[in-house]
Amino acid sequence: MSKRKFSSQKYMVVTALLSIFTPVSAADKKPEQLVDQLCSTCHSLNNLKHSSGYSQKDWKTLISYMVNTNSDKKLTQNITGYLAEHYPVNTKRESTVIKGDLKLNFEYWQVPTLGQRARDPVQGKNGIIWWVGQWGNILGRLNPNTGDIKEYTLPSGTYAHSVSLDKNQTPWFLGNKNGTVGYLDLKAETFKVFKMPDEKARDPHTGVFDNKGRFWFTLQHSNMIGKLEPETGDIQLVTLPTKGARPYGIKLDSKGTPWVSCNGSNCLIKVDKNSMKLTEIKLPGAQTHTRRLAITPDDMIFYVNSGVGKLGRYNPKNGKITQWDNPSGADSHPYAIEYADNAIWFNESAKRPETLVRFDLNSETMQSWPIPSKEGVYSGLIRHMRMGNNGLIIHQTATNQLAEITWSQ
């Protein structure tokens, strides 16, 4: 495995700050000032306030996944000591675990570049796992059999949100910051980029290929859904009927019809695969919003109701909507979801440790597990999960790790 390195602009700022804080200059600052100056460079300090807390040892480990702190060990000691004192281990985000007979196994891989916000891994039929490092502007390749990792720097300003594979195992990325969709030519190791035809289409988000090779994708804050013809580069865009619906996840049913979840409104969207006409399905509850969805072989549309902590099912045949409470309740914020092995799998992203839940489709019962993190740091979160060749392929953005989950009785 490659040695961890550090290239993201944001985190280079933090590393630079660490390097200029000599023991003398650090002594002039209170620990809370150091934490405020260093941590808030990349994320809100609310992340600390809302955390489940760690020991000093685990704070050191967690920080090491984000920035290189070797430049000043005394400074690191002071910062982590302050964090351990003011944000110690607590149970305020504790999950409710439902026990059962199924056993899980987790295999982890640490990606090389620190602080990249690794996310959305997908495994090809050839076994290779691809991911994007959103904050590091990275497209990554992992061979899970050998542990070999290679990272490619994406075109400037891309900051990809997700990656999908076409029928040739070519990785396609969605440029969330520069309004692009593109792919890596595996032979030439060069990028081909397609620009959105409308300047209002700013943020390609999540995508999926249909059986005709067309690439369907969402644009969350632009409130659009797009279709790209790879052979011609032609892109068509449609705007959702509800303002601020924020299309997020996208999946195809057995007929190749795209379905989209709404992260800003209580709706699902059905897309006509020929005309791109949109049909909006209203879901119950004004607080309902759906991060992602999964579709079973019999075309039942399952979704995570992130707003109220439920698993939902929409039956397109009769319009019936059914919802089940999550094990950890209304504030569990279910996020990623996938169908696998006659079950629906999803995570409770607001809990620590983050939990993985399995909903058995036959018995309509749930079993859940705390998701272990490498080296004992129970930090999340999983923003996407997809079934791989042997099990679920997930990520944890805070620790920049990828993982495969397999199960047995």
TrEMBL record:
Coiled-coil region list: none
Protein name stated in the entry: Cytochrome C
Native source organism of the sequence: Catenovulum adriaticum
PANTHER family: VIRGINIAMYCIN B LYASE
Keywords: Plasmid, Signal
Signal peptide: 1-26
